[in-house]
């Protein structure tokens, strides 16, 4: 009888130990949050927005965050497949076809606007039209107003590699705007007078503008806002026919539509990271705010991570509206 009693106690102790281990394992698994993959688009505003989210998600919410570099088409495709969890800057109209496919399939969810006052189009330095007396620059295209005027001014913008045509600095290969700009050029008849030059990166495109501007040289190209160059340099957008959906769908021979820059997540994210989704639903900036952190980044020779910290320190009243008090407390502690 005594032996049976001892065996019963041992069994109960063993079972209790197993139950405790299971409970501890369950608690630790609950505490360990899912890794989140953010599609890290190759331009500065996206770099900073991605790192703002990364800092808050890691320091305030306990997630592990991976940044996956890539171009728009590749990362949106990744979002459809589930290889990417979050994209902070989906330029919807620039990637309309693949975006519409993903939404129609239910592959990803649009959480709304990151910023709604973006701009993109063709432009030249203002001194090309008006000159710059302080720099001793005379106007070389005083009548230049619209894209249609560019045909007669191609010699001003000669391509150094092909002097028989002018050079237009277009979009980065792989971005949706690359194909759009090519179609626009054909619609405006500019393909007969200019070569489309495709810079290999955002840095190469902005560098071409900055280099020409600082030397007072001609430059004709595509750019967008919010960006640091349009905050730094006096550039003049060229007039285009007003956006018309029918024309846009047929030839792209009109102005870019007002572009929605939205936040999107893979369909599985609301279930595996509901608090993150609630945070991203509230996340919203403006072109002005983006220009300010991009200007800080450029003028301070700072990395995107530094610009994200700068934003969190200088816009506390904004970002604390996006998260709970507990998350905000943890983030502020991490900033010290």
Structure description:
The protein has 336 residues and is an alpha/beta fold. The protein contains 15 helices and eleven strands. It is globular and about 60 Å long. The protein has two domains: 34-116 and 261-335, D-Maltodextrin-Binding Protein, domain 2 (3-Layer(aba) Sandwich); 119-250, 3-Layer(aba) Sandwich (D-Maltodextrin-Binding Protein, domain 2), CATH 3.40.190. The model is unreliable at 19-31 (pLDDT under 50). Strands 2-1-3-11-4 form a five-stranded mixed beta sheet, sandwiched between helices. α2 links the parallel β1 (35-41) and β2 (64-70). α2 (44-61) packs across α13 (304-314), α2 (44-61) crosses α15 (325-335) and α12 (287-299) packs across α13 (304-314). It has helices at residues 2-31, 44-61, 72-81, 96-105, 126-130, 176-187, 202-215, 228-232, 245-250, 269-272, 274-282, 287-299, 304-314, 316-319, 325-335; strands at 35-41, 64-70, 86-91, 108-115, 119-125, 158-159, 162-169, 194-197, 221-225, 235-237, 261-266. The longest helix is centred in the first third of the chain and has 30 residues, at 2-31.
Number of discrete helical segments: 15
Chain-averaged pLDDT: 91
Give me the count of strands.
11
The overall number of domains is 2
Report the sheet-strand fraction.
15-25%
Shape: globular
Q: Level of helix content?
A: 40-55%
First CA to last CA: what distance? 65 Å
Question: If you consult CATH, what is the topology of the largest domain?
Answer: D-Maltodextrin-Binding Protein, domain 2
Structural class given helices, strands, pairing?
A: alpha/beta
**CATH architecture call of the largest domain:** 3-Layer(aba) Sandwich
Q: What is the CATH top level name of the largest domain?
A: Alpha Beta
Kindly report the name of the CATH homologous superfamily of the largest domain: Periplasmic binding protein-like II
Q: Which radius of gyration do the C-alpha atoms yield?
A: 26 Å
Largest sheet: 5 strands, mixed
Low-confidence stretches: 19-31
Order of helices and strands: HEHEHEHEEHEEHEHEHEHEHHHHHH
- Spatial strand arrangement across the major sheet: 2-1-3-11-4
């Amino acid at each position: 009888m005594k032996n049976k009693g001892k065996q019963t106690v041992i069994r109960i102790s063993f079972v209790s130990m197993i139950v405790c281990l299971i409970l501890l394992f369950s608690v630790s698994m609950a505490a360990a949050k899912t890794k989140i993959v953010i599609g890290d688009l190759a331009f500065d505003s996206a770099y900073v927005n991605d790192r703002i989210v990364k800092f808050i998600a890691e320091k305030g919410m306990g997630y592990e965050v991976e940044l996956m570099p890539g171009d728009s088409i590749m990362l949106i495709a990744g979002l459809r497949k589930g290889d990417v969890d979050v994209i902070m800057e989906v330029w919807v109209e620039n990637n309309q076809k693949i975006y519409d496919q993903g939404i129609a399939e239910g592959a990803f969810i649009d959480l709304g606007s990151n910023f709604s006052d973006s701009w993109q189009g063709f432009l030249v330095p203002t001194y090309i039209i008006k000159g710059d007396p302080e720099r001793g620059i005379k106007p070389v295209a005083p009548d230049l107003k619209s894209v249609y005027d560019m045909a007669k001014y191609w010699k001003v913008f000669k391509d150094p590699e092909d002097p028989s045509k002018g050079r237009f600095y277009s979009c980065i290969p792989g971005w949706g705007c690359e194909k759009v700009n090519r179609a626009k050029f054909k619609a405006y008849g500019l393909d007969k007078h200019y070569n489309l030059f495709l810079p290999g990166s955002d840095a190469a495109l902005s560098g071409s503008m900055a280099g020409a501007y600082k030397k007072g040289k001609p430059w004709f190209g595509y750019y967008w806002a919010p960006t640091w160059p349009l905050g730094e340099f006096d550039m003049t957008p060229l007039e285009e026919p007003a956006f018309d959906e029918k024309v846009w769908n047929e030839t792209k021979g009109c102005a870019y539509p007002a572009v929605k820059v939205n936040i999107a997540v893979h369909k599985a994210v609301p279930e595996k990271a509901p608090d993150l989704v609630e945070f991203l639903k509230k996340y919203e900036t403006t072109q002005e705010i983006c220009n300010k952190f991009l200007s800080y980044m450029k003028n301070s020779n700072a990395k995107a991570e530094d610009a994200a910290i700068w934003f969190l320190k200088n816009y506390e009243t904004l970002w604390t509206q996006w998260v709970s008090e507990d998350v905000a407390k943890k983030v502020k502690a991490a900033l010290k």
